Amino acid sequence: MHRGPDSRSLSLMSENPAAAIPTEIVWSESMLAYNFGPQHPMSPVRLELTARLASEFGILDRGNVTVLEPAVATDAQLESVHDADYVQAVRKVSANPDEPDEARGLGTEDDPVFEGMHEASARLAGGTLQLAESLLAGRALHTVNFGGGLHHAARGNASGFCIYNDCAVGIQRLLDGGVQRVLYVDVDAHHGDGTQSIFWNDPRVMTISLHETGRTLFPGTGFASEAGGPEALGSAVNVALPPRTGDAAWMRAFHAVVPQLAGAFQPEVIVSQHGCDGHARDMLSSLRLSVDAQRQMMLDVADLANQLCGGRWLATGGGGYDIFDVVPRAWTHLLAIVSGQPVPLQTEVPKPWRDYVRDRYGVDGPLAMHDDARLWWRSWEVGYDPNDEVDRTVMATRKEIFPLHGLDPWFD
């Protein structure tokens, strides 16, 4: 038996017209200041092209959408999840780029120092913080900061292109605002280590990360045995998938772990990180995903938020380094889904956008909003194959985590 795209996910948006989903999107050209330099893979061009493509589809102008100018987070807000001396260290190198602090990850090859680094980083964190506040106030049900998702930053150091962890800042604001259970779902190719570490011993937050195994990819963590601190055992969930994992295997793993634990945890809000660097074209991972599969996971997270949280959902971007072909398409799909009206897969990329990319960057952009992938997967209910490396990975996670939530690793 094979399973294709979840029928509930695919029908969700038709049952919830866009006008019924108050949505906030963080976007401003000021976000392009988060810029490590022209040779760095994390180019701000990916944000510019995403916003431009989303605008071609009219997503930012939908009647239910409010576009927010991101505010720079204050030191006190950043210190809700970061050490105060780390924030001061970022401020210091931001003002004096010639004096890096490599002990804190500031001035490394991954995180080179640039003038204004603190303000640029705090602005991205401030955007996610604003979305959390909107969810608390009831101003929006769906929210997205596609410039966020900086999940490697830890309490006291920068890491992996991430200075401040906006995901953690947003989650902590939700907790401080009275939310009792937050589910964090991370589908970036790289393990969401910083967010996991910040909430390692907090039972109010469940972090689920699907990623390429740390045996072959930065940051070298994220194994099934990493299950949370002594006061929050079972709150950290990791599915470490082998290199070259493609759509069918990835979706099988997602559906064998995420919906079951989400149902057991019963979150009040879902925060998700949608790094698209697992795509087959991306240069910084060895995964083989399509935009089609990435879009389907967005629909699945939307479905979980609708089922479990009354729709309360805060989505972010993350990694993604094929800045012309993959990132704008993936995150335009995210913006469309968050705002309640998906762009159909079989849609052409608007010609004005492709013309702009060619004229401005000398690159031929993609022709369609899909990769023409055969999107299907074998559901876990079909059975466990001990000779399959992905199945062994999934079973390791289920055996480690499921009993801690009253679930059977073999059957649930």
Number of helices, where a helix is a run of at least 4 consecutive DSSP H or I residues: 12
Record the strand order, biggest sheet.
2-1-3-8-7-4-5-6
- Which CATH first-tier class would you pick? Alpha Beta
* Order of H and E elements: HEHEHHHEHEHEEHEHEHHH
Which structural class do the helices and strands define?
alpha/beta
Mean pLDDT reading? 95
What is CATH's topology name? Arginase, Chain A
Spans of at least 5 consecutive residues with low confidence: 1-18
Distance between the termini: 18 Å
Tally of extended strands? 8
Q: What is the C-alpha radius of gyration, as a whole number of Å?
A: 20 Å
Family: Belongs to the histone deacetylase family.
Pathway: Ketone degradation; acetoin degradation
Domain Histone deacetylase: 40-336
GO biological process, one term: epigenetic regulation of gene expression
Written overview of the protein:
- The protein is an alpha/beta fold and 412 residues long.
- It has one domain: 3-Layer(aba) Sandwich (Arginase, Chain A), CATH 3.40.800.20.
- Helices cover 36% and strands 10% of the residues.
- It has helices at 7-15, 45-56, 75-78, 84-95, 117-137, 166-176, 193-198, 247-265, 291-308, 327-338, 351-361, 389-401, and strands at 23-26, 65-68, 142-145, 182-186, 205-212, 236-241, 269-273, 313-316.
- Strands 2-1-3-8-7-4-5-6 form an eight-stranded parallel sheet, sandwiched between helices.
- It holds the Pfam family Hist_deacetyl.
